[in-house]
Amino acid sequence: MTAINLIGKGPLIVLGEHTVTLEDGSQVVKETRASYCRCGSSENFPFCDGRHKGL
């Protein structure tokens, strides 16, 4: 089962195996956990790099 958690003003946390399709059509498989940027400031978008902490 996959679980999705919203962390206040922080990232979206997805627990469980899932596949992400990027803008260029490539796919990334995450096997256990991934944090996704919701603020748009990450230099590793769509993945969170913690830059939201300075906003």
Structure, explained:
The structure is a single chain. The protein has no helices and five strands. It is mostly beta strands. The strands form two sheets. The protein has a three-stranded antiparallel sheet with strand order 1-2-5, with no helix packed on it. The relative contact order is 0.24.
The neighbouring-strand order within the major sheet is 1-2-5
Low-pLDDT segments? none
Distance between the termini: 33 Å
Secondary structure tally: strands: 5
Helicity level: under 10%
Structural class, by secondary structure, is mainly beta
Topology:
Layout: E1 3-6, E2 12-15, E3 18-21, E4 27-30, E5 33-36
Antiparallel strand pairs: 1-2, 2-5, 3-4
Which descriptors apply to this entry?
55 residues, mainly beta, 5 strands, 0% helix
Put the structure in a nutshell.
This protein has 55 residues and is mainly beta. It has strands spanning 3-6, 12-15, 18-21, 27-30, 33-36. 5% of the residues are buried.
